[in-house]
Design a protein that fits this description.
By secondary structure, this protein is of the alpha/beta class. The protein is built from 10 helices and 9 strands. 39% of the residues lie in helices and 20% in strands.
Length: 268
């Protein structure tokens, strides 16, 4: 495994200090949780295939983080970073669907393909990720990638389709508060093919990062894109083994409308 340069580690500790007021997805009032559940029931009642199991799975997902949930209060800008060919249409369609279900006017994502040929030392010592507070309800991430050239990217949700060799550094740079749950380590060790993190203040989600392995087969890749990009919008938990939702901790894409109902209910 790559030995991290001391400069990069020192920068990270500074970043964590600057982020001391931001926490991993936390708690909103339980009242909002009940409103979301009520709206979900209304939407599900329009579908004759809905069952009691759907309702129970929804409660499991909503009851993460002590029965509370959060959402974005502004349209996040997606930034897509990849070092292998990806299905851009699939990513675009997922973001369009998210925009439709949330009623957030999400702009076209920013795409950046990078390929390190010679200058890996610059990548590991100079690549940096910082955050800027625009207001109490908005943060902007600033990612500067160094290699054979320099790329400067700004956004609110950074989605990395990156091999473990490079993902390890991006995970380090974006792991405010440490690797809770060991998801980053699992990704680097190729145990977990995808995961997300979302950061917030006491009111709403402010920043998100998603990691998805670019080496996945098409169906698994589709499942990861759908699940992680929906969850970074505020659906924070899985209902293990769910037959109704794709938030099930399983690498299998279901043909279901209930995911859309759930996200729509959260932003109703």
């Amino acid at each position: 495994m790559h030995e991290w340069p001391r400069l990069a580690l020192r920068d990270r500790f500074h970043q964590c200090f600057m982020c001391r007021n931001f926490r991993l997805l936390p708690q909103v009032s339980p009242q909002m949780r009940n409103i979301v559940l009520s709206m979900l029931i209304i939407f599900m009642n329009t579908d004759n295939t809905a069952s009691a199991d759907v309702y129970e799975d929804a409660k499991i997902i909503l009851d993460a983080k002590k029965g509370t949930v959060k959402r974005w209060e502004f349209p996040p800008q997606f930034v897509i970073i990849y070092n292998r060919k990806i299905d851009i249409n699939l990513v675009n369609n997922t973001i369009k669907n998210i925009s439709l279900q949330t009623n957030l006017d999400i702009e076209k994502p920013i795409y950046k393909e990078f390929e390190l040929v010679k200058n890996e030392e610059d990548f590991y010592t100079k690549t940096n990720f910082k955050i800027k507070r625009n207001s109490e309800l908005k943060l902007t991430g600033k990612l500067e990638i160094h290699g054979d050239s320099i790329s400067k990217l700004r956004g609110n949700i950074f989605v990395f389709f990156v091999d473990p060799k490079y993902a390890s550094h991006f995970i380090l740079l974006t792991s405010f508060g440490g690797d809770r749950g060991g998801f980053g380590r699992g990704y680097i060790q190729q145990i977990n093919p995808c995961f997300y993190r979302a950061f917030s203040n006491s009111q709403s989600i402010l920043l998100g990062v998603v990691f998805i392995s670019p080496s996945l087969e098409k169906n698994d890749l589709s499942a990861c894109i759908h699940e992680e990009m929906f969850q970074v919008m505020g659906l924070v938990n899985d209902a293990p083994g769910s037959e109704s939702f794709n938030f099930d901790d399983l690498p299998l894409m279901k043909l279901t409308i209930f995911d859309e109902y759930f996200l729509k209910a959260l932003y109703a």
